[in-house]
Amino acid sequence: MLKTINIILVLTLSLINGNFETKNIKKSTMSIYDISINSIDGNKLNLEDFKGKYILFVNVASNCGFTRQYKDLQQLFDEYSDKLVVVGVPCNQFGAQEPGSEKEISIFCSEKYDVTFPMTEKVSVRGTNQHPLYEWLTSKQQNGIKNSSVKWNFQKYLVDKDGNLIDYWYSLTSPMSSKITNYIK
Q1: Domain shared by 102 and 144, yes or no
Q2: Beta strands of 50-175 (E only): which ranges?
């Protein structure tokens, strides 16, 4: 009888400690709205301004086979502008396909694809110089949902209206894919 009580007590304490640790892990996840990043023109891009909308983060490049996705990203932004913000994040880490300056990137996007959605400064999306935004997007410890790694240009990360990571999709997934739009509708 005493052994049974001891076992129950140990199990109860284990469950209590387990719940306590889970709560602490959830509280330690950083909010995406706390991350600082500059816009392509050098001004601060305040992610908190996007609270209440979905945010689709896409690492972009001007000289990539997927560059034509700018057109679909703009279409997605236009169609769902009341519910969604698309944020283009220039990156030169994959095949050196985004070699230009922020000004050159901005001109290219504006003239070639009529991009009006927010664009950030050029950043590293992986490696030792990974920007904090991509640390959050790719780390379960920070986003509370899942780990990932950025494989190529035009990988997409969707964050919900409350700033929680929903999921990510590789380059082959079109921005207008139902895999993405079904969350937003």
Answers
A1: yes
A2: 54-60, 84-90, 156-159, 165-169
* Residues recognised as catalytic: 64
CB 121 within 8 A of CB 129: no
pTM: 0.85
Q: What is the 3-state secondary structure (H, E, C) of 34-52?
A: HCEEEECCCCEEEHHHHCC
| Rounded Cα–Cα distance for residues 123 and 132 (Å) | 10
Question: How far is CA 2 from each of CA 14, 48, 66, 105, 148, rounded to the nearest angstrom?
Answer: 18, 56, 68, 73, 48
Give every strand in the sheet of 84-90, ordered side by side: 84-90, 54-60, 156-159, 165-169
Tokens of 178: 């139902």
Interval 111-150: pLDDT, tens: 999 999 999 999 999 999 999 999 999 999 999 999 999 9
Q: How many domains does the chain have?
A: 2
3 — pLDDT class (breaks 50, 70, 90): low
**4 and 62 housed in the same domain:** no
